[in-house]
Design a protein that fits this description.
Elements: H1 2-7, H2 11-24, E1 36-41, H3 53-71, E2 75-77, E3 81-82, H4 87-96, H5 100-117, E4 128-129, H6 133-148, E5 152-162, E6 167-169, E7 174-175, E8 178-179, E9 187-196, H7 202-207, E10 213-214, H8 216-226, E11 229-239, E12 250-255, E13 266-269, H9 274-278, H10 286-298, H11 301-306, E14 314-322, E15 329-334, E16 346-349, H12 355-363, E17 381-386, E18 392-393, E19 406-409, E20 413-416, H13 446-449, E21 450-452, E22 459-462, H14 476-483, H15 497-503, E23 508-512, H16 519-532, E24 544-548, E25 551-552, H17 569-576, H18 578-587, E26 595-596, H19 602-615, E27 619-620, H20 627-645, H21 649-665, E28 669-670, H22 671-681, H23 686-695, E29 719-726, E30 729-737, H24 742-750, H25 753-759, E31 764-770, E32 774-779
Parallel strand pairs: 1-2, 1-23, 3-4, 10-24, 13-15, 23-24, 25-26, 27-28, 29-32
Antiparallel strand pairs: 5-6, 5-9, 7-8, 9-18, 11-12, 11-14, 11-17, 13-16, 14-15, 19-20, 19-22, 21-22, 29-30, 31-32
The structure holds one RNA strand of 85 nucleotides.
RNA sequence: GCUCGGAUGGCGGAACAGGUAUACGCGCACGACUUAAAAUCGUGUCCCGUAAGGGAUGUGGGUUCGAUCCCCACUCCGAGCACCA
């Protein structure tokens, strides 16, 4: 009885065993030579909840690809690490008083264990952690390079402020006017902030998308976000006014439709436009103007955009502009539908052509010309390119992030730390709350804050802002390559150049769509900068980018703790095994699309694995299969191969299910064929296939075997089924040798009663023949 | 509002250089094995019709010998952007 039980498929008896053996043999450790393949899935934020089913989907997909590449002879790097700085850990620390260092340690331990239990073929020797001082030393080093090249600067700007998290947010972190993390309404606050000049790279970030293999929807989203538009800057003279400064005699507007200039009947400035203050003395209704400016200033972003888009504005009375095309005097208005941050902060309004201008003109009774004559594109100004992309707000007023390595010296101003003084370590503290003044808790640690200026030796204060959690993830793909040298990141940068050149770019990068305008754009920018200063040799970090769909709870809702509908992958692994979970998540539907979890369907793949396990009993010593089976067999090898490449994992598995059924139906299974089947299944279900491979008596592991190639000649059937249609409707089918000519098929078709009865007394007008597929007889 | 996806059995989904719609899986029904149940295996499973045949891929048109696939109009769902001149 016990003996019999051992022979049944039991994941508990095999999965751990192989995981330990892989680890012991260091089978997944990448070398730094050979034909390389760098596959990457976005590294996780190690939250206290552990891995969720969505993680499993993405990591399994890249694990399948990585395992296949290894069998194809590539030197594969499939690394893993932890993006561990960030708010949830800090908030947890505030709530419990437990140090974020400790929380991070606990959480990464859990994640690591879970990944191992899933059989992920990570190179654990290259594990990185963004909160490790050896790691963030480099994040800080890169910040200093930005600073050195004038790409990091501090400025007082109106930022998005989350009053609950007490933190400034980048534009990319504001969703529908609310904080991306906690959903609180975002306020505007004037604050000194660090910014990175990502806008200097806007054009390259846009253009270079054409050189890389990203999914179209990803490229589109990035293009929309960068928002490149080509237009013309046109100067409208201000009439009836004497200026001391010549520059101030004109209002510069940006338009993508300079051809509509003859229809421009008024000008609009953004309320924050600098010129307004300069024109103050000439504006008759200044009180009214000032009142409007203040109202706009105090409106939140959400209010400004959500008030039904009802247009508001005030005319600047006392001054007029002149349309250079018509030479007519036109009024000048200010209105908040014109944004200071885009173009020149001023527009020429063409109410006949632009919907917003039309609404505004109607509300305030401004003239609308129809039937104006079109102008040439550059007749009244010169062509310029504008972007929607804004500079990246790079500082956060929080504890749990990389300290920004500069000091503020009373005499020298902002002074960067010397590179040899990195890392600037985050001091351990007892309280993690942000201060009410909106400063980081670091500000209250006087023995850390008060320091000496590296330049003059005088008194100085450390910068207390920290970096956003997008910093560490902007270059982690480089860290994996660097990490390989000696398992540390301690060497000077020159030591890493060879290995960086060898590994970069990442060959295949998978991740979530939610990171398209954040992480993906930031890291491309970061890499381009490092390319420009000679640290890396490719200007794009990722050759190919794909994305996985979300996994939703049953019924299509998002999984969430509050709804109690969260599926814990640990439970599935425990009950059914890692191989079953991996295969289920790959089989459940199209990889790129969102899909609902359904426990019932797990049994489908579990049964498949159990049946596969039993198949070994049918192995025979015979040496040849029939041609028909071989055709199916080789077609399956090809399909599994091609489907993995296009991430159509669901149909790859379905093809293997069909093959299994066919092999069960037959009286015997050839050992050769069985082994090939094991190999093509192995990336999906690595444990059971290693076990069965070993049971066949092999000493080597299946992961060390070669990926099978289909025999294209054997894929072709000797006979094919041809569908016979009459007037496009299927009436019969017949078997005929592959590659038969039209006349042969027609001759055979005529003999079929189901065809013949439609032909009686009628004339065939036209014959359409698709070789090996279909014959369509068109009748009168 | 704009941009991009999507809509196929009871359910998840296949089929895309226009060529047998519903592969594969789940569920369900019946049968075999069991004293019995579970498990397993086998058969069936879009709708109407005894059949011949007809109707079905969100809706309505069009192109074509032939349309899930291409074109036009619309409805609904999802994602992204959102006064970007």
């Amino acid at each position: 009885m016990a003996e019999k039980k051992n022979q049944e498929y039991n994941h508990r008896l095999i999965e751990k065993k192989w995981q330990l053996l892989w680890e012991k043999k260091k089978i997944f450790q990448a070398k730094n030579k050979g034909k390389k393949f760098y596959s990457l899935m976005e590294f996780p934020y190690p939250s206290g909840d552990g891995l969720h089913t969505g993680h499993v989907r993405g990591y399994t997909a890249m694990d399948i690809i990585s395992r296949k590449r290894r069998m194809e002879g590539f030197n594969v790097l499939y690394p893993i690490g932890w993006d561990a700085f960030g708010l949830p850990t800090e908030n947890y620390a505030i709530k419990t008083g437990i140090s974020p260092f400790k929380v991070t340690k606990t959480n990464t331990d859990i994640f690591r264990k879970q990944f191992k239990e899933l059989g992920m073929s990570f190179d654990w020797s290259r594990e990185v952690n963004t909160t490790d001082p050896n790691y963030y030393k480099w994040t800080q080093w890169m910040f200093l390079q930005f600073l050195k090249h004038d790409l990091a600067y501090k400025a007082k700007i109106a930022i998005n402020w989350c009053p609950k998290d007490k933190i400034g947010l980048a534009n990319e972190e504001v969703v529908d006017g609310r904080c991306e993390r906690c959903g609180t309404l975002v306020e505007k606050r004037d604050k000194e902030q660090w910014l990175l000049r990502i806008t200097r790279y806007a054009d390259r970030l846009d253009k270079d998308l054409d050189t890389i293999d990203f999914q179209e929807k990803i490229k589109l989203q990035q293009k929309n976000w960068i928002g490149k538009s080509v237009g013309v800057e046109i100067e409208f003279p201000i009439s009836n006014f004497q200026f001391s400064n010549k520059e101030d005699t004109k209002i510069k507007v940006f338009t993508t439709r300079p051809d509509t200039i003859f229809g421009a009947t008024y000008l609009v400035l953004a309320p924050e436009h600098k010129l307004i203050q300069k024109l103050k003395s000439q504006i008759i209704n200044w009180d009214e103007v000032l009142k409007y400016i203040n109202i706009v200033k105090n409106k939140s972003e959400l209010e400004r955009t959500s008030e039904g888009k009802e247009k508001t504005g005030v005319e600047l009375k006392g001054i007029k502009g002149r349309n250079p095309a018509t030479n007519q005097e036109i009024p000048i208005w200010i209105a908040d539908y014109v944004l200071l941050s885009y173009g020149t902060g001023a527009i020429m309004a063409v109410p006949a052509d632009d919907k917003r201008d039309e609404e505004f003109a109607q509300k305030f009774n401004l003239p609308i010309v129809k039937n104006y004559k079109p102008a040439g594109f550059e007749d009244f100004g010169k062509q310029v390119v504008k972007f929607k992309l804004r500079d990246w707000i790079f500082s956060r007023q929080r504890y749990w992030g990389e300290p920004i390595p500069v000091v503020h010296c009373q005499r020298c101003g902002i002074v960067p730390l010397s590179e040899k003084d990195l890392p600037l370590k985050l001091p351990k503290i007892g309280r993690y709350e942000p201060t009410d003044t909106g400063e980081s808790p670091l500000a209250s640690i006087s023995n850390w804050v008060n320091t000496r200026c590296p330049k003059c030796g005088g008194r100085a204060r450390r910068e207390t802002d920290t970096m956003p959690n997008w910093a560490g993830s902007s270059w982690y793909y480089l860290a994996y390559a660097m990490q390989g040298i000696s398992s540390t990141l301690r060497e000077p940068i020159s030591k890493y150049q060879k290995t960086l050149k060898y590994w970069m770019p990442v060959d295949w990068y998978n991740g979530g769509m939610e990171h398209t305008t954040l992480h993906l754009l930031y890291s491309r920018f970061w890499n381009k900068f490092l390319y420009d200063i000679g640290v890396v040799t490719t200007s794009e970090p990722y050759k190919k980018r794909t994305s996985h769909g979300l996994i939703l709870a049953r019924g299509g809702e998002k999984m969430s703790k509050s709804k109690g509908n969260v599926i814990n992958p640990d439970d599935i692994v425990k009950t059914y095994g890692a191989d079953t979970l991996r295969m289920y998540e790959m089989f459940m539907g199209p990889f790129e699309e969102a899909i609902s979890w359904n426990d019932d369907n797990i049994f489908g793949v579990l049964r498949f694995l159990e049946r596969f396990w039993r198949l070994k009993e049918k192995i025979s010593k015979k040496s040849k299969s029939d041609q028909k089976f071989e055709a199916l067999f080789h077609r399956t090898i090809k399909k599994v191969n091609d489907d993995i490449e296009s991430m159509a994992f669901n149909t790859a598995i379905s093809a293997m299910m069909i093959l299994l059924k066919e092999m069960e139906r037959r009286e015997f299974v050839l050992k050769k064929e069985y082994e090939v089947f094991l190999k093509i299944l192995s990336p999906f279900a690595p444990h059971i296939t290693e076990e069965l491979w070993r049971k066949l008596g092999h000493k080597k592991l299946i992961i060390e075997e070669k990926w099978p190639k289909p025999d294209l000649k054997k894929m072709i059937d000797l006979e094919v089924k041809i569908v016979v249609q009459i007037n496009g409707r299927v009436r019969a089918e017949c078997l005929i040798e592959t590659g038969a000519k039209e006349t042969e098929v027609l001759e055979l078709a005529r003999t079929l009663p189901d065809v013949n009865k439609w032909l009686i007394g009628k004339e065939i007008k036209k014959i359409i023949y698709v070789p090996n597929k279909l014959l369509n007889l068109v009748m009168v």
